[in-house]
């Protein structure tokens, strides 16, 4: 299944949903309608029983250069800073892409076809795994623009890098090349630009071949563990294990192991 809009592409094949930012002429900066589309498509992939892995990527030379801040008054698609939008004193981010991305149990892979900056940097960090083109860069230049990492970076980076390294990166507003990103552990692997999509697809296929309920439960337990003590966490893991032991996939996994063959999982 493939669906196309002007700014975001959505396709599902072989249990993998791919969401592609499709505004290469403006380096995939995210407009207001794109925010809604990304969240909607993430939720669609979450709710589709056929989808086991979600891939987020872009077209052109950039993954995402941030939010589209243009003030377009020509009647077309407006940027994030819409002068005609009503003034609000509260903000609800429950359906914003970073929140939706964080709460999805299905594994997410960001295939960094090109550089990521600002909102794009935070959105890439919000995925479970990142594979990166060797020509791409990660830009944490928030403080150079007088702002903060507004979409999860201040929560994610200290957990990924530790306090000191996260502080150095955020406070300095530094831009990292692919090798620096790999050395810090921000990406899992780097690949030539013409093969990074293939590498991301291969990783997605490897994950999708495993028992989807077990993969999703593993991610859910990892996320819960970020805010739990060890004793509470292992108790919750045991409670999660009990229903998994009753699934058809668990029986298939054990049978395949004993019979020395590849398992065929059905998500049941």
Put the structure in a nutshell.
The chain has helices at 32-47, 97-103, 119-126, 153-161, 163-172, 178-184, 196-208, 212-225, 230-244, 248-259, and strands at 2-4, 8-13, 16-21, 53-58, 62-64, 108-112, 115-117, 129-133, 137-139, 175-177, 189-191.
Find the count of extended strands (DSSP E, 2+ residues).
Answer: 11
Largest sheet: 7 strands, mixed
Envelope shape: globular
CATH architecture descriptor name of the largest domain: Alpha-Beta Complex
Query: Residue-averaged pLDDT, rounded?
Result: 89
Distance between the termini: 22 Å
Tally of structural domains? 2
CATH superfamily of the largest domain, called what?
2-enoyl-CoA Hydratase, Chain A, domain 1
- Please trace the helix and strand order, writing H or E for each element: EEEHEEHEEHEEHHEHEHHHH
**SS-derived structural category:** alpha/beta
Write the layout of secondary structure elements.
Layout: E1 2-4, E2 8-13, E3 16-21, H1 32-47, E4 53-58, E5 62-64, H2 97-103, E6 108-112, E7 115-117, H3 119-126, E8 129-133, E9 137-139, H4 153-161, H5 163-172, E10 175-177, H6 178-184, E11 189-191, H7 196-208, H8 212-225, H9 230-244, H10 248-259
Parallel strand pairs: 3-4, 4-6, 5-7, 6-8, 7-9, 8-11
Antiparallel strand pairs: 1-2, 2-3, 9-10
Helix pairs in contact: 4-5, 8-9
């Amino acid at each position: 299944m493939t669906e196309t809009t002007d700014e975001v592409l959505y396709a599902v094949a072989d249990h993998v949903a791919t969401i592609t930012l499709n505004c290469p002429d403006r380096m995939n900066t995210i407009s207001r309608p794109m925010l809604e589309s990304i969240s909607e498509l993430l939720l669609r992939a979450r709710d589709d029983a056929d989808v086991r892995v979600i891939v987020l990527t872009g077209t052109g030379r950039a993954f995402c250069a941030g939010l589209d801040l243009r003030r377009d008054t020509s009647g077309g698609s407006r940027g994030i800073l819409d002068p005609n939008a009503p003034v609000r004193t509260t903000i609800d981010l429950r359906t914003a892409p970073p929140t939706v991305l964080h709460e999805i149990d299905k594994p997410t892979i960001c295939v960094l076809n090109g550089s990521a900056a600002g909102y794009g940097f935070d959105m890439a960090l919000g995925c479970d795994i990142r594979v990166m083109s060797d020509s791409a860069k990660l830009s944490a230049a928030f403080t150079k623009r007088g702002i903060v990492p507004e979409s999860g970076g201040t929560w994610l980076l200290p957990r990924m890098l530790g306090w000191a390294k996260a502080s150095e990166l955020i406070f300095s507003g530094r831009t990292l090349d692919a090798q620096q990103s790999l050395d810090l552990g921000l990406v899992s692997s780097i690949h030539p630009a013409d093969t990074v999509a293939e590498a991301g697809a291969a990783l997605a296929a490897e994950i999708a071949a495993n028992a989807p309920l077990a993969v999703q439960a593993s991610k859910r337990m990892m996320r819960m563990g970020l805010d739990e003590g060890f004793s509470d966490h292992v108790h919750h893991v045991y409670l999660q294990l009990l229903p998994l032991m009753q699934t058809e996939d668990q029986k298939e996994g054990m049978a395949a192991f004993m019979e020395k063959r590849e398992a065929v999982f059905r998500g049941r």
